Amino acid sequence: MKKFALLIILSFLSITGLQAYTSAANSFSGSVHVQETAPVANVFFDFNMMGVTFEGFVTSSKGKYPVQLGAFRLKSNAKAFLKNVREFIDNDAIIIDEDGYYKVRIARIPGSEENSGQPAKELPDSAGNGIIQTSSVVSDTSVANAVISGTPDTLEKAKTGVNKILFIKGDSPWLKRINYMGKSFMFINALIITIVISTASMIILLIIILLNRRRMEKVERLRQYLLEKYQSLIIDYLFGSTTADDFRSVASDTYCRQVLIDQMIDVSINLKGEEAKKLISLYKHLGLDRDSITRANDRRWHKKIKGFRELAFMNIKDANETIYQALNSSNEILRMEAQIALVRLSDDNPFEFLSHLTRPFSLWEQITLHELLIQHNIAAPSFKKWLTSPNPTVVMFALRMIREFKQNDAEEDVNITILHTATAVRQLAIQVAGDLNMRSTLETMKRMYKNQEYNVCLEIVKSMGKMPDLSMMGFLKLVLDKEDDVQLQIEATKAIENNGEEGVKALVKIMKSEYKNYNIIVRHVLDRRIF
């Protein structure tokens, strides 16, 4: 059906193009108009002969072409008409005997003989009238005369000229004088060529799309067939009698080897223990590891990513050096894949790559690695070793992992990190210290408070509220008294209340003071209806 539809489309387009070309050629040969190149003088008259009225004709004072005014079967009628015409244009009108008709034409314009070549010669007949034969009229405008008067021989010449124009002869004078439906032949040619090119391009594009679609469908069917075949072979190899040599024939070309690798990776996800080791042994026996290493060293980033994934799933460590180089790539996706691969390929310290990371470690990459660590039950290392990293984003990741895995043994290192040069790191370290109840950091927070930005100050007061200490009551009252920011005052009041009975007594005493704004804030904090 597709071939039949394509054949119909091609036939329709061919017929349409042929009809357009034939119509254009016929129009060129039958609808040609002469463009005047000089001002026109109009002369009108009425002449009645044998019940026929001839009304009006147009002549040009400076034109180059003769104009036919009328054609008669009877010579007498032609002579009478000629006599009447000559009253208006002197002796410039003549009678021509042609095709059984006596035709009255304007042969020349006075004073134009020097511009139009040899004038038409008038040959008197037996009666002395100016009747000439067509063959005796010689002019450089014969083609135009033929088009106007319809002489068969010269009309053929005009058609030949038009056909030449269709092939775009840029030096032809017809391009300057002749219009078709108000448009020049050059413009019409351009339109025809554009239509032909557009139609051909559309047909070629349609054929390419259809062929490509057919090829993709064929490849997909082949891939599905191979996946089913290889899956049964792998299962039979792991739990049946199939040997590694049975795979040689099915892994004979590049495409089949790639499909086999993909199927092995899908199967390996659910394998552990001896079966996983047996599958890796088959992978190496067939030389598929070399294919993965080649992809990992490819210059194209998407090929590298595919190679990294294959090596990570099959636990092949021969390309670890290449993966380490990709850690600081400008491509964020490549960096993430390299990090994931190194976590899976490391037995002792899966996060060792953090020591080599110099580019920003985005929050999305941090979340991805945390999910990987949880899903694969990877033992979490001691993250405090990366709190001294020169990369601030690595330090922030280490702080988050310390909080996530509740590594309280890093309290001393966190206390040092609170004084980090980066504001974001200081704020996160203070937050982690409060979440893990690291009370040794309270004095450090108290000392640094007055020199910090607003967000850091707010985080300090919040952390003091998370780990209440009576020794901090005086500092918190000072914050409530000296700070103008309402949010800071509210957080300081909450921190005082978290100190238990002593804190509540202090707040009641503050409510009885003369500072009315304190009353509003304290009542707001002590109101149990507000959470």
Question: Can you characterise this structure?
Answer:
The protein has 531 residues and is α+β, with helices and mostly antiparallel strands. 57% of the residues lie in helices and 9% in strands. The protein has a domain at 39-152. It contains 22 helices and 9 strands. The chain has a 4-stranded mixed beta sheet, with helices on both faces. Strand 8 (178-180) and strand 9 form a beta hairpin. The model is unreliable at 18-65, 110-152, 161-170 and 173-178 (pLDDT under 50).
Name a few traits of the molecule.
single chain, 531 residues, alpha+beta, 4-stranded mixed β-sheet, 22 helices, 9 strands, 9% strand, flat
Secondary structure class reads alpha+beta
Task: Give the neighbour order of strands across the main sheet.
Answer: 4-6-5-7
How many E strands? 9
Compute the separation of the termini in Å: 71 Å
The average pLDDT is 76
Characterize the largest beta sheet: strand count, sense, and whether it forms a barrel. Answer: 4 strands, mixed
Strand proportion, as a percent range, falls in: 5-15%
Secondary-structure map:
Blueprint: H1 2-30, E1 33-34, E2 40-49, E3 52-60, E4 67-72, H2 75-89, E5 93-98, E6 101-106, E7 131-133, H3 142-149, H4 152-166, H5 174-177, E8 178-180, E9 183-184, H6 185-239, H7 254-268, H8 274-285, H9 288-296, H10 301-313, H11 320-325, H12 332-345, H13 363-375, H14 392-404, H15 411-417, H16 423-435, H17 442-448, H18 454-466, H19 473-482, H20 486-497, H21 501-511, H22 516-526
Helix pairs in contact: 1-6, 3-4, 6-7, 9-10, 10-12, 12-13, 14-16, 15-16, 16-18, 18-20, 19-20, 20-21, 20-22, 21-22
